[in-house]
Design brief:
mainly beta, six-stranded mixed beta sheet, binds calcium ion
Amino acid sequence: MKKLYTIIALFSISFLSAQTLFFSEYAEGSSNNKYLEIYNPTNAEIDLSTYAFPSVANAPAVAGEYEYWNEFPAGATIAVGGVYVITHGSADPAILNYSNHTHTYLSNGDDGYKLVEGGTWNDADNDGKKDAGEVTGFTVIDVIGDWQADPGSGWEVAGVTNATKDHTLVRKLSVTTGNADWDDSRGTDSDDSEWVVLDNETWTFLGSHPHTDASLSIFDFGDIKIDVYPNPVQTKLNFSGLTSPVQATVFDMLGKRQLESKVTNTLDVSSLKSGLYMVEIKNENSAKVFNILKK
Ligand SMILES: [Ca+2]
Ligand SMILES: [Ca+2]
Ligand SMILES: [Ca+2]
Ligand SMILES: [Ca+2]
């Protein structure tokens, strides 16, 4: 149990000090059906003027450095719990419908993108453009791919070869902040990856985050699989797959206990105020911590 409390404490600290915007979805489909979705998990609207999404095309000119400094349009913001969608300008209308910003050079599978904040610009050649190497000192918040080398056609994610090409990637519900470590984020299999790899041209999850579709929210609890939904939740959180009651405890972002109950099928969360919470479920053999958003 000590270990679990340590994990909870760490989670709480990260919520307080380091929760950031992150890439919630990525699609590299057929022709120009490409997009990046960015999610705001914080409790404040975020002004994107100090953020950028620099990239490298194929192999980087200088390993580890960006080639193209891509900025958000003036006045761009992301609401609390909202998403910001960057699409190719010639994407399918079903994608363009959700577009907040169009950008022509999105990845065709082997081009690394990073979500970054801050940085200092020195316009070395005085051309008014933020050329490669001119912006330094920025903080990398999240990544899809890296700037180390051309991966070939695409990067492997969750054990799926070339997952960044002709697939849609959706960030798991359990992810609450960005991760600058691509190898850690992509993982090696469907359990340790922060991403769910979906078929080419899957756009069902575009335009919002997080998602609780069965394929995204089922997780292992001991030797059974359970599904928790809906999320975001308004009144009742449903548990499917549990065969005997578990102890459920709900903590707020400060790590303060807000609810405690035995649960087999549903947990009434109607008394909670709106916001992000952490739920711990446990029985004699297993324990699991996940996040919910109360509407
Ligand atoms: Ca493609
Ligand atoms: Ca490319
Ligand atoms: Ca320049
Ligand atoms: Ca989404």
